[in-house]
Design a protein that fits this description.
The complex is a heterodimer of chains A (about 220) and B (about 250). Chain A is about 30% helix and about 30% strand. Chain A is of the alpha/beta class and about 220 residues long. Chain B has about 250 residues and is an alpha/beta fold. The chains are: A alpha/beta (about 220), B alpha/beta (about 250).
């Protein structure tokens, strides 16, 4: 029996993530935990997240998670979701500017800055909330297995990773006013800005793919 | 392709059972929230709203179990409204698997509650549900108690205030149109949608598929909510999406 650890740092949607993983898990036990030892002992790890980045980073740091995540990223499959993905990057403009873990290159900007000045007829709502198309950079990546190119996934976020800044790590792009990076990957680390646990069949497929992924 | 416009069926739940008669062909138990949620998911619903209309306090706990069961089976966003009065109510629903909560009366009684809720849980999960009624041309007021009690609060000012307090989305119901099947109050929807930066869900009055199109095109709603046209099998969510797509509205097919 394999195990997948969902990192619990008190930030909300981990129950949804755990339920979706349980729904697709075969011969895999889902462990929700903030215990570094349990997390490091798991075969693969998921870093979920919703809410504001400053609170998320503060809780992750209080629990010693940046070191744990760093260690996980060296040798086992790691999947980060939404604010979890943002936490892996270098910096976010949210909350007046917050330094993140810096495991992957990239700095997050606010959607509102670019759009707020447009007339109401074309202004884009913030947060970017709802279903939008995800264009896979490399459809042969194991996490996209049997997920149709340009499938819709569910998003809720106000800060985004501009396309181009994440040179070399952008695994998918999405259009919202401009093109941004909706997934990043490097080696055994994969992260999505969208919520697979809320994206019906396509999202469940991505979780199933993650549970079968050896990180290569 | 831009962001899709969302179609959101709304289900009234009383003591753990879906009421107001959902009628699906071949459904085993028309009152079972899990079965109905599964059907709507299969039909392509983009989100679901569960409105807890349970009157008795003792049976409120039942809603938590409903949310738990639905969230274990159906993997699309789930909003729960009705009886959300304090932070503990929100925490309970989010832990049960809800993605967002709808706050209505509690916000009118104490607007700071919305601020506290957004600070504690994040704006992304705070939907302010507002019931508005026209009081004179171009002016709407917020009503409570199912449209019976006037509050004297201007609906547009209220929408802006709730967004500034941290609401991540507005669920806007026209009490004039609710249950009429005459279509949305498009002037209301458009005025609110243009006034705020967050997504607006239009609600109240849908009687046919053209009403959904009107809500998006003329009302500039980001999402449309409907109950009876889907529950009674007049239209499926899939038909609604096809109709919207034919009218050049971006939908998830």
């Amino acid at each position: 029996m394999k195990t997948v650890a969902v990192i619990d740092y008190g930030m909300g949607n981990l129950h949804s993530v755990a339920k979706a993983l349980e729904h697709v898990a075969i011969d895999t036990r889902v462990v929700v935990s903030s215990d570094p030892q349990l997390i490091l002992a798991a075969d693969r790890v998921v870093l979920p997240g919703v809410g504001a980045i400053r609170d998320c980073m503060a809780e992750l740091q209080r629990l010693g998670m940046p070191e744990v995540v760093q260690e996980v990223s060296r040798n086992k499959p790691l999947l980060a979701v939404c604010v979890g993905m943002q936490a892996l990057l270098e910096h976010s403009a949210e909350n007046g500017g917050v330094d993140c873990m810096g495991l992957l290159p990239g700095r997050l900007d606010f959607f509102g800055d670019a759009f707020i000045r447009t007339p109401p007829s074309d202004h884009l709502k913030v947060p970017h909330m709802g279903w939008n198309q995800v264009h896979q950079a490399d459809p042969t990546h194991p996490l996209w297995h049997e997920i149709k190119q340009d499938s819709a996934f569910y998003f809720v976020h106000s800060y985004f990773l501009p396309d181009g800044l994440a040179t070399g790590v952008c695994a998918a792009t999405t259009e919202y006013g401009q093109r941004f990076c909706s997934a990043v990957s490097r080696g055994n680390v994969f992260a999505t800005q969208f919520h697979p646990e809320k994206s019906a069949e396509a999202g469940l497929r991505l979780y199933r793919n993650f549970l079968m992924w050896d990180g290569n | 392709m831009p962001l899709s416009k969302r179609i959101i069926p709304c289900l009234d739940v009383d003591a753990g059972r879906v009421v107001k008669g959902v009628q699906f062909v071949g459904i085993r138990d028309a009152g079972d929230p899990v079965e109905i949620a599964r059907r709507y998911n299969q039909a392509g619903a983009d989100e679901l709203v569960f409105l807890d209309i349970t009157a008795s306090h003792q049976e409120r706990e039942t809603m938590v179990h409903v949310v738990e069961q639905v969230a274990s089976e159906v993997f699309i966003p789930l909003t729960v409204g009705g009886g959300i009065r304090e932070k503990a109510d929100i925490r309970r629903m989010l832990n049960a698997g809800a993605d967002k909560v709808g706050i209505n009366t509690a916000a009118v009684f104490r607007p700071e509650f919305v601020k506290e809720a957004a600070d504690a849980f994040g704006s992304q999960c705070i939907v302010v549900a507002m019931d508005a009624k026209q009081v004179s041309p171009g002016r709407w007021e917020i009503f409570t108690h199912g449209g019976r009690k006037a509050t004297g609060i201007d609906a547009i000012e209220w929408a802006c205030k709730m967004v500034s307090y941290g609401a991540g989305e507005l669920l806007l119901t026209s009490m004039d149109r609710d249950g009429t099947k005459d279509g949305f109050d498009l002037a209301l929807v458009r005025t609110v949608s243009d006034a705020v930066a967050v997504p607006v869900i239009a609600s109240g009055g849908v009687g046919n598929l053209q009403h959904l199109v009107d809500g998006v095109v003329e009302g500039r709603a980001d999402a449309v909510l409907a109950a009876s046209i889907f529950h009674f099998g007049e239209y499926t969510v899939a038909q609604a999406k096809q109709y919207m797509a034919q009218h050049n509205i971006e939908v998830r097919l």
